[in-house]
Write a structure and sequence with these properties.
Elements lengths: L15 H8 L5 H12 L8 E3 L3 E2 L9 E2 L2 E5 L4 E7 L6 H14 L14 E7 L14 E8 L4 E13 L13 H11 L13 H10 L6 H35 L2 H25 L4 H8 L3 H5 L2
């Protein structure tokens, strides 16, 4: 059963607090394991994970750093980056590849080493859609590997990028078939649910709904969640407003070329407007940079 009324019973997993509570804390690592197993279908199920340091520095002191939402490895030493991305970025794919380079470089060994690597998986849960397939509502689950374009075969299977375009997931409770469907439904609808749906009877979802119930939070945790929710709502409002303005400018052009130019201008204004608003809200430059793709210098100049 869904509702739009307030207060919510369960947390919003699109908030930093909500996402890290469910997937980034050792006490709830069974939720992360269950989600990854439903998504990846590895040769052997993940039975345990160890959380790793989420902040990574470059090889030199002045190199840029990467801060992951969730970073862990399984018992086989395979690495997993799991991120919730709330808004599109101009160079989102570049950023994703850049982030994946850290768990690859960290595997380098001193002395003799034959370059054998453990697999690296990047999972992006996206609260936006890619421009190039925005018209295809059925294509929301992207799995990307290095491929030989002549043979149409995977060339290297130890580097995988998975992106889930959440706005495209529209299945109702009655349409849920696979465990993956159920996870997508929960992530998409959790904050609007009044109770645990009958279709989600697996033990893992018992744990999830127990962990996500706001009424069970301590006063301190509730305050932290409410602050995170406010940041999420402010960001959503900024993005929605900027997109609407961009669309209005595009429509006023009256021609396809004008609409394209208007959309591009709107996206650029959206980035700058988002960064300006978040800077005024006192958010850290590293967070603003992750959301907008702007450098610290560009943010500082706003």
């Amino acid at each position: 059963m869904l509702t739009n009324e307030f207060p919510d019973r369960y947390i919003n997993p699109y908030t930093d607090f909500g996402f890290k509570l469910l997937f980034g804390t050792p006490m709830n690592k069974d939720l992360l394991i269950g989600f990854l197993n439903s998504l990846l279908h590895l040769e052997h199920d993940i039975t345990d994970v160890t959380y790793l340091n989420a902040e990574h520095l470059g090889m030199a002191e002045l190199d840029r750093k990467a801060v992951f939402d969730v970073y862990c490895e399984n018992t086989a030493g395979e690495k997993f980056i799991v991120e919730m991305q709330k808004a599109g970025q101009k160079f989102f794919k570049d950023r994703s590849v850049f982030y994946a380079s850290f768990p690859i470089r960290e595997q380098a060994k001193r002395g003799d080493w034959n370059y054998e690597l453990k697999a690296v998986y990047t999972v992006g849960i996206l609260n936006f859609v890619f421009d190039e397939d925005s018209d295809d509502e059925n294509y929301f689950h992207h799995e990307v590997k290095l491929m030989d374009i002549h043979r149409k075969e995977v060339f290297y299977d130890k580097l995988t990028f998975i992106y889930l375009e959440m706005p495209k997931f529209h299945k109702s409770e009655e349409e849920l078939v696979t465990l993956f469907d159920k996870w997508m439904f929960v992530l998409h609808n959790l904050s609007r649910l009044l109770e645990r749906p009958a279709a989600l009877q697996e033990r893992i979802f018992t744990r999830l709904f127990e962990a996500a119930e706001i009424a069970k939070f301590t006063p301190v945790k509730r305050m932290e969640y409410e602050e995170s929710l406010k940041v999420y709502r402010d960001l959503t409002n900024v993005i929605d407003t900027a997109e609407w303005k961009g669309e209005q400018r595009g429509l006023q052009k009256g021609r396809e070329e004008g609409r394209k130019e208007g959309r591009e201008e709107g996206r650029e204004e959206e980035r700058l407007s988002n960064a300006r608003k978040m800077k005024e809200m006192g958010l850290e430059y590293s967070f603003i940079s992750r959301i907008t793709g702007l450098s610290a210098e560009e943010i500082d100049a706003l």
